[in-house]
Specification:
- This protein has eight helices and 13 strands.
- By secondary structure, the protein is an alpha/beta fold.
- It folds into two domains: 116 residues, Response regulator (Rossmann fold); 106 residues, Arc Repressor Mutant, subunit A (Orthogonal Bundle).
- The chain has a five-stranded parallel sheet with strand order 2-1-3-4-5, with helices on both faces. Strands 9-8-7-6-13 form a five-stranded antiparallel sheet, with helices on one face.
- A hairpin with a 4-residue loop joins strand 7 and strand 8.
- The protein is elongated and about 60 Å long.
Length: 247
C-alpha cells in the first residue's frame, strides 16, 4: 500500500540500516510521507551527524556491522538523547523484543514488516514524542571556557565578575549546556523557559539569547559568541562544556 501524506510534514526521520536496498526503499517510502529523511549505513556516521542536528524520530536496525543497534542505543541514552527510537530487527521473539525495549527503544518491529504498520507506529511516536531534554544531575555546575555556570544558584561567574540569571534564562542555558553543539529548535527552547507563546511570531527567544550573550560577555569578553544562531532552525552552544559537581 502506498503511504498517504503524513500529518507531520517536514519532520526529520533518520534511518540506520546496513542493508543498502532496504535503506533505499525506506528512504523513498518515508519521503513519500512528506518527511525529511536521512539514511545511514552504520551507526558511527549517524553519531557524527548528531553533532549538527537531531532527528524527531530514529529508525534503528538492531543487527549492524561492528556494533549492534542495542549497544548504539544504550550509548545514545546514556549521553542524554531522548528522541523516540523505533527498532527494526529480524530477531522477533518475545525475549528479543523485550531486550530492545529495555535498552531504550520506544517501539520494536520484526522484519519483514508491513509498511502501513510502520508508518502508523511512526505517526504515534511523533505525536507522543518526548521533549528533547537531557537530564541534569542535582547540584551540578558547568564550565564554559572561562565562565562557570551554577544553575541552582542562578549564577554566572568569570574573570570579569558575576551575573545573576532569571529562572527562565537559567533553564535555557542549562539545556544548551547539556547538549553542546546540538541545534535546538525555537519551540523547544521556549518550552524550556516556560513560555507558551508561538515561536514563529515572537521575539521573546531572541531577546533572551541576546541577554544571555551580554551576561556571558560581562563575565568574560567573547563568551557570548558561544551562543550561535542557526538560520531557520534555532540555537546551539558552540563550546566544550565540563560538568562538575557543585562544591
Amino acid at each position: 500500500m502506498e503511504a498517504g501524506l503524513s500529518r507531520h510534514d517536514n519532520t526529520r526521520v533518520w534511518v540506520v540500516e546496513d542493508d543498502a536496498d532496504q535503506l533505499v526503499l525506506l528512504e523513498r517510502r518515508l519521503r513519500g510521507c512528506g518527511w525529511s529523511v536521512r539514511g545511514f549505513g552504520e551507526g558511527e556516521a549517524m553519531e557524527q551527524a548528531l553533532r549538527d542536528d537531531l532527528p524527531h524520530v530514529l529508525i534503528l536496525d538492531r543487527l549492524l556491522p561492528r556494533q549492534s543497534g542495542t549497544h548504539l542505543l544504550q550509548r545514545l541514552r546514556q549521553k542524554g538523547y531522548r528522541f523516540p527510537v523505533l527498532m527494526l530487527s529480524a530477531l522477533g521473539s518475545a525475549d528479543e523484543r523485550i531486550t530492545g525495549l529495555e535498552t531504550g527503544a520506544d517501539d520494536y518491529m520484526a522484519k519483514p514488516f508491513l509498511w502501513r504498520e510502520l508508518q502508523l507506529r511512526l505517526e504515534r511516536l511523533l505525536a507522543d514524542r518526548r521533549e528533547l531534554r537531557p537530564q541534569r544531575s542535582a547540584n551540578q555546575i558547568f564550565r564554559l571556557g572561562h565562565v562557570s555556570f551554577d544553575p541552582s544558584q542562578l549564577l554566572l561567574e568569570g574573570p570579569g565578575g558575576q551575573s545573576r540569571l532569571t529562572r527562565g534564562d537559567s533553564s535555557l542555558l542549562s539545556l544548551l549546556c547539556l547538549a553542546p553543539g546540538i541545534v535546538f529548535e525555537r519551540d523547544q527552547l521556549l518550552q524550556t523557559t516556560g513560555s507558551l507563546v508561538d515561536a514563529n511570531t515572537t521575539s521573546t527567544l531572541a531577546m533572551r539569547i541576546s541577554k544571555l550573550r551580554k551576561l556571558l560577555n560581562d563575565c568574560h569578553p567573547g563568551s557570548g559568541e558561544m551562543l550561535e544562531a542557526v538560520r531557520g532552525r534555532g540555537y546551539r552552544l558552540n563550546s566544550p562544556v565540563q560538568a562538575l559537581p557543585a562544591p
